[in-house]
Amino acid sequence: RRNPPWIKLYNSIFNDYQFSRMSDCQKFHLIGIWSLASVMNNELPNDGEWIASRLGARTEIDISVFIELGFLEVADDSDDTQ
User: Fold this and answer.
1) Among residues 21, 28, 44, 69, which one has the fewest Cβ atoms lying within 10 Å of its Cβ?
2) CA quadruple 24, 65, 57, 36: dihedral, nearest 10
3) pTM for this one?
4) Could you read off the pLDDT of 42-77 as tens digits, one per residue?
């Protein structure tokens, strides 16, 4: 498991139209999700409640918005054998 002391956030994100249209709360959630993903091998559960608890968020996190806008991707785990 990685534990980088920082993540690279390109300032061009602030010129991204979709990012600029999100609420301030959603922007924080997204950047928090990216930070959390950096220490979890870029694999997070598709569970907004769990992510919110890890980020200390006081508002609900709707992951589907970030997926729909292309900021997050859902991994294809159909090859997983259990």
Assistant:
1) 21
2) -110
3) 0.83
4) 899 999 999 999 999 999 999 999 999 999 999 876
